Amino acid sequence: MKIKITMAVLFLVLTVSSLFPQSGTRSIDYSARSFGRGGTSIGFFDSPSLIMSNPAGLSFLKNTAVNGNAIFMFPGMHFRNYKKDAGGNVTTEVYNDKDGESNVFVLPSVSYVQKIKDSKFTFGAGVFTTGGMGADFTLNHQLFSEPQTYHSRFATIESCISGSYLITPEFSVGITGEFLYSTLEITMPFSLPPSLLKGTLYTSQPSPTTYGKYFSDPRPYGLGYTELTAATEMSNLASYTFGGKIGLAYKFSDRFSLGASYTLSMPLDFKDGDAKMDMTAQFQQASGIAAQNLVQVYGISLDSAYKLVSALFAANGIVTSNGFVANYKVDNRFDNPQSAGFGLMYSPFSGVRFGFDFEWLNWSKAFDNMKLTLTEGSNSNINKMIASGESDANPMVVEFPLKWKDAVILKFGGEYDISSVLTLRAGYSYSTNPIPNTTIIPVIPAVLEHRFMAGCSYDILKQLTVNAAVEYGLKNSVTGSDPHLVATEYINSETSMYNILGHIALQYNF
Q: How far is CA 262 from CA 138, 168, 245, in A?
């Protein structure tokens, strides 16, 4: 009966989480108890959330238990960038200096551990909202007459089954099988290299050229672009994949324990999403530059130049009445990173415990590029210019650079039993920022480094404990490089973020 009730709760959390995608930086842990002491958990064997941090530690839990946990996130974000002059060079004049929208997110999790009587096996199951990242801004862009939406949501939810085995009274091994569900959506002006326009353009020159070469060649015989920008929206992207982790736990005594864990990388293949790409503003600007070039070269009137530009595109099969807005089906590919960590717990005397965790996350391999594959392009004008994207056999493939660096997380914390029913906690965590200044953008603001935490536990009943914690991620800023790999609008820009989180959990020991 207990297992049936617990599995019903797990199903409910998975359903709610799937309908309410989360955002924010990767959570450094998954239990209000461990958050209160800086996120230290790998060497502390005291919570069903060990399913996620170190499944081997489940062997040392004293009771069958169920734990319901919620994280409340209140992120704050800011973005500033600078205006470009007529030549496209970034100036010192501030163009945007805006806060992101005030969002509140709730990340629920639930876990259950079953101690198998007269056995060396322990069973666990859980559903964890493991986070993601996201932001919402309304920003000016010099190509567009109206402010543009900058929006992102990337969420991961994991359903897990764990098992641990006590090899000796002091040493245990454990494994967790993971089913990961992820969602992704992005809306923003999206810059593309002119070389993507591979369609053939016939001009008055002796031989044809490509649209990309015409757009990138210097003026007045080309348009002089280093990037092309489209208002882009991608939605309804979902990924389902499997992974796992393995853990080791050694409990020397109630005063000292060690743990280690390793998590596999999991591919995130987002399929059959919807994408909309609006290049109207870009081609209006390009037509204006082309007309100005003709005025400069041939000395004709601007009105006559516009008519010649229109005739040139018409001769190449570009029907202006069809516009420059295209809908696509889109696939996206990157990875959830592999990670490894170890931790310890040391109790110098009764009622006082200190912990330390170290984690390494292999972001450099997982978040090198996002590979976007677009098919079923609905606009014949764009299909002609790009010469791809209209079918599965001839997709448009775009590599969106991320170039993240590997991250290291250090966690320090401790707890003190005030009485038999009350425990106080405090801790600190430092993590290196994985996002380089060559790819930092406001819709991917996961740049936090320093976090301070405090919390407590109180036994409401003999079998029922409430755990609570607060966390403050100090504001951190990253300045975009020059040149920037994503778009020139981010050159010398400043993206900053802080985060306030509240954690609350109830644990019932059977």
A: 40, 21, 5
For tokens 């909202």, the residue is 129
Alpha helices by DSSP H, 182-331 = 211-216, 280-298, 302-315
Angle in degrees, CA 26, 29, 33, rounded to 5: 145
DSSP result, 57-108: GGGG-SS-EEEEEEEEEEEEEEEEEEEE-TTS-EEEEEEEEEEPP---EEEE
Do you find a cis peptide bond into 220, omega within 30 degrees of 0?
A: yes
Domains of the chain, residue spans:
2-134+155-186+239-267+334-363+406-509
Is the domain covering 2-134+155-186+239-267+334-363+406-509 a CATH 3.40.190.10 domain?
A: no
Please list the pLDDT of the chain residue by residue as tens digits (510 residues).
Answer: 444 333 333 333 333 333 333 323 467 888 999 999 999 999 999 999 999 999 999 999 999 999 999 999 899 999 999 999 888 889 999 999 999 998 888 889 999 999 888 899 999 999 998 877 789 999 999 999 999 999 999 888 999 999 999 999 999 999 999 999 999 999 999 999 999 999 998 876 677 889 999 999 999 999 999 999 999 999 999 999 999 999 999 999 999 999 999 999 999 999 999 999 999 999 999 999 999 999 999 999 999 999 999 998 899 989 989 999 999 999 999 888 999 999 999 999 999 999 999 999 999 999 999 999 999 999 999 999 999 888 888 999 999 999 999 999 999 999 999 999 999 999 999 999 999 999 999 999 889 999 999 999 999 999 999 999 999 999 999 999 999 999 999 999 999 999 999 999 999 999
Contact yes or no for 498/449 (Cβ under 8 A): no
